[in-house]
Amino acid sequence: MRIAYARLYQESNALSPVLTTLEDFREVGILEGDALAQACTPRGHEVQGFLRNGELSGFVKAARREGPAELELIPLFSALTIPAGPLDAEAFAWFEDRLRADLLAALPLDGVFLALHGAMCAEGITEPEARILEMVRSVVGDARVAVSLDMHANLTSRKINAADVIAGYRTNPHRDHASTGARAARMLLRQLTGRTRPTVAWRSLPMLLGGGLMLDFWKPMRAIFQRMKAMERDPRVLDVSLFQAHLWNDHPDLGWSSFVVTDGDPALADELADELAELCWAVRHAMPPRPSDPSEAIATARAARVARTFGAVFLVDASDAVGAGGTGENTRILEALLREGQGLRAYVPLRDPRTVTTCWDLEPGTQLTVSLGGGLDPASNDPLSVDATLVTKRSTRATGRAVVLAVGDTRVLVTEGSALALEPSFFTDMGLQPFAADILVVKSLFPWRMHFVAQNRKSIFVKTSGITDLDAAWSLDFHDPVHPRDEVACWRPADGRRRGLQDDGPGAHLDSPT
Ligand SMILES: [Zn+2]
Fold first, then answer.
1. What is the distance in A from the centroid of ligand 1 to the CA of 216?
2. Residues 299 and 265 placed together within one structural domain of the fold
3. Residue 289 CA, ligand 1 centroid: distance in Å
4. Does residue 254 register a pLDDT over 60?
5. Are 203 and 343 in the same domain?
6. Helices 332-340 and 294-303: crossing angle, nearest 10°?
7. In a domain, 510, yes or no
8. pTM (predicted TM-score)
9. Which domain holds residue 27?
10. If pLDDT is split at 50, 70 and 90, which confidence band does 288 have?
11. Rounded to whole angstroms, how far apart are CA atoms 179 and 505?
């Protein structure tokens, strides 16, 4: 028995004009063949600096345990890059051609496992990952196709029809990459060896909310994930996934979805997928707390003396969340700090390759006037002119070339690459000590909290205006009225249309990939 495996993974923000290139994937590192197999061992790193044991390691380990002794696993490639704009046409074509060629070379195959995100966009293509799955299907014929997806995937009929196995993350922030790969492996191997006869059902909700804020261990989602676990305790249920969609993924049927796999029991799959959809619809009014504007946030930070003494106050730049595809060059919080933050030591990340280049040949201590931001996405971001002193220039793994500029009491960490500010090393590698700051600006919605536990004494969500605001998604095109942009009385009409049903009722027939 022969099964090939690969990863092609990016969460794209359709509103970003900063297209993702092949070079962006290469900077993170594309692994192939034996190097990939080695990376998928327990001591390996699947994606250096990002992910140790992920979906592919989990898949390999579980497939070996579930599969027959003669199972042969064929590593193809693994490519991942951080969220940004859609893949440019060249990058997408390169990966599509590469995967097709690798699969043809690996034939005959009994199965294929792909670790995808599910919210990738590509220039000029409506649903690039469905196209990838359809291509794989056309190459491998009757071989089974398994796929793992991020919880923020957009599930569609096309993806479901092209795959035999779908497993989605069930933690947010995501901590279950490896176990998701393992779930896909178990379903695939049991199908291939005739031990199960999977039937699937799903629902699609015309609803967009949450993003990184609907946490699996916090209300209102905790009860829903507990119910999913309870569903799986029924031996007839093979797997349950819930997808919350990436808000800025350009697809007319974007929304949350439920997906249930049972062993030869389509009625039960349908019943549970429907129940899960109803549970999600019932929490649709659970909006995150109202974010602050920059002035409010700075005033709150100033008043939080104890928090500033024992750590820092974190301002989360929700309008420019690089983890959700923001460009990282929004200057609005910086502008407010320079105006109202006197006496507060603040560290502000900002992506501006042009300024890094300007500073690179200067000596530390040089004074200069620079225009910051607004070079990558001028339609969304205004440049800000400042009088600054160059403090540091270094090249780091997280940022590429970067410089620190002193502007009054603020230190601006200007990067050529990502300005995500996910971990303390983002600052310390540039000589900035988080404990010395009153205010740290981060451009990640939630995952930064796991890395800044020691420093984080208070955090404030700040909304200005940018491409990772919920309401920014309303500029995208949708087939149906979508909550909360529109008043939506019932989710079933949109769901029925999305699933291609004649009638919209809960007992209607389901799509099945098998
Ligand atoms: Zn996600």
1. 12
2. no
3. 20
4. yes
5. no
6. 50
7. no
8. 0.92
9. 2-281
10. confident
11. 34
